[in-house]
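Q: Hi! First time doing this. I have a protein sequence and I read that you can turn it into a structure. Is that right? Here it is:
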Amino acid sequence: MNILKSEGYSVREIVGRLKISIGAVQNAIRLAGGSGRKNCGRLRKTTERQDRMLKAAVVRSPQASSARVAHQARLRSAQISVRGPSDVAYQMNSV
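A: Yes, that's right. Below is the predicted 3D structure, encoded as structure tokens:
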């Protein structure tokens, strides 16, 4: 099919020559061409680090509800700062 496509035949012409469905031709061309779907699915809301933290929280307390795990994760993330340790120490001492 890809040979016929590269020779300039349309999908409809390929369907007529090979006597198969349009969908089969389109799928074969798409899969063989390497232009399959990219970045399909829902975008991630959490980072890999957050995923590890959530997994650790579930391992520590497997019977906890998802609401409780989410609450603990929010509490932990509030303690995480983008600033360096010296900035955090300065902020804690000035309060």
